[in-house]
Write a structure and sequence with these properties.
Layout: H1 2-24, H2 30-52, H3 63-92, H4 102-121, H5 125-129, H6 142-160, H7 167-181, H8 183-186, H9 196-199, H10 212-231, H11 238-255, H12 257-268, H13 271-278, H14 281-298, H15 306-312, H16 315-327, H17 335-339, H18 345-368, H19 370-419
Helix pairs in contact: 2-3, 2-14, 2-15, 2-16, 2-18, 3-4, 3-6, 3-10, 3-14, 4-6, 6-7, 6-10, 7-10, 11-14, 12-13, 16-18
């Protein structure tokens, strides 16, 4: 009875806190949460279909498949851009600057947390029981890059924010342009001189899904956009001007950026511009992102539903749960292991819809009970720790001493062998 009462009390306090926060958060841009919700749902169905659809049905000449494939390619750029946008918007909205800004400390903690979760999701407990860490553990994925992007934005912020008000956004914009323009040159390097764990952040040669370059470019352009929004937040015609600007930029990047780089090559003779012309996917995707921003701002009044906002604010939980179910984090036994590239469209389409619904519901349920779950987990950890200490003091100490002695003897023999 006491446990049920405690749980109810904790949940009531947490829900009241959440409701008060949402009610008082006047500065929150709800269309950004709607974009995050759309991007995470697109990612769920994209990963499900891409991982489980039979190769026989991957026909680029099929109109439906080609449209799905194109929009799937929009998801990651949108997610990175929105992540950079919302983090920087919160970072600069207060009056404190530099290390006095409490968001700096929170951002560093968040970035490191995402890196840790990214590696944890790739850990295989069965391998650990064998004393092995599989090579897939060292591969870099979206969480690693977003975590590192947050740390990168903080670094640029600390170096520039107190010098000139135009320097911070200027460096952010220049970072995106440089990373995107030079991508044909640096993507060819495998960075064998680095430890594989570090090289995986710079090259896909070892199997990484994402790399910090050029993907940091989308986070930095999102940060640049948020600075503009913050500077003009009191402008009467902010949204009409922003929508028109994003549409113009989006169309320009989609249809004219390739020709622009060809003209730059003809004018300067620099080979890098011709390389961008022949594989101009980064700027074209940025054009897609601009148009997505314009659409969500245009229909922002219809995107303030509480369910949409909750999904947009629960993207990390959704990502973690989907990774466990689909890819089998910790065990390797996920849907991908059993159904890899084996389903027909008649099964994979409703399956993707069901996967989206189930994963989202589980994530929202977790968010609703997060405080209680964390309390229970901390209690369980303390209990295990106490039991372990008791066992160690009573029965395990002789065994531990024997193990330490055996380890010392083994090391001595090994040392003598190396010395000889």
């Amino acid at each position: 009875m006491h446990a049920k009462t405690s749980k109810a009390t904790v949940l009531q306090v947490y829900r009241m806190y959440t409701k008060v926060n949402m009610g008082n958060n006047n500065l929150r841009l709800y269309f950004i949460d709607a974009m995050r919700a759309w991007a995470i749902l697109m990612m769920l169905q994209g990963h499900f279909v891409d991982g489980l659809l039979d190769n026989a049905f991957r026909d680029n000449s099929n109109g439906v498949y080609s449209v799905w494939k194109y929009f799937r390619g929009v998801t990651a750029p949108v997610f990175f851009t929105v992540s950079g946008f919302i983090f920087t918007y919160l970072l600069i909205k207060g009056n404190e600057i530099g290390f006095n800004n409490p968001r700096v400390k929170k951002g560093i903690k968040r970035g490191l947390q995402l890196l840790a979760i990214g590696y944890l999701l790739r850990l295989n407990f069965f391998g650990l029981l064998k004393g092995q860490i599989y090579g897939s553990f060292y591969l870099v994925d979206v969480l690693h890059c977003i975590g590192l992007s947050i740390l990168g934005i903080i670094g640029i912020y600390l170096l520039t924010i107190s010098r000139n008000k135009y320097l911070f956004p200027g460096v952010l914009l220049a970072t995106t342009i440089v990373l995107f323009v030079l991508e044909p040159n640096y993507k060819q390097y495998a960075h064998h001189y680095l430890p594989e764990m570090m090289a995986n952040y710079l090259t896909k040669a070892n199997g990484s899904v994402f790399t910090i370059i050029p993907w940091f470019g989308y986070a930095s352009i999102g940060a640049f956009m948020s600075v503009l929004f913050n500077r003009f937040k009191n402008f009467k015609y902010l949204y009409p001007a922003a929508i028109a600007s994003f549409i113009i930029v989006g169309i320009g990047l989609l249809f004219y950026s390739s020709g622009f780089f060809l003209k730059l090559y003809n004018w300067t003779g620099m080979l890098v511009f011709s390389k961008v012309y022949f594989n101009n996917y980064l700027f074209i995707r940025l054009g897609d992102v601009s148009l997505v921003f314009a659409v969500f701002m245009l229909f922002r009044k219809f995107m303030s539903h509480s369910s949409v906002l909750k999904i947009g604010q629960s993207t990390l939980s959704i990502y973690v749960i989907h990774y466990i179910i689909l890819y089998g984090s910790f065990t390797g036994l996920g849907l991908y292991y059993f159904l890899n590239h084996s389903l027909s469209p008649t099964i994979v389409i409703p399956g993707a819809l069901a996967f989206m619904v189930i994963t989202t519901m589980l994530a929202l349920q977790y968010e609703r009970n997060k405080v209680y779950i964390k309390l229970q987990l901390s209690s369980a950890v303390r209990l295990v720790q106490q039991k372990g200490e008791a066992w160690l003091n009573e029965e395990g100490q002789p065994l531990l001493k024997a193990f330490v002695l055996k380890s010392k003897l083994t090391l001595i023999r090994l040392f003598r062998m190396v010395k000889n």
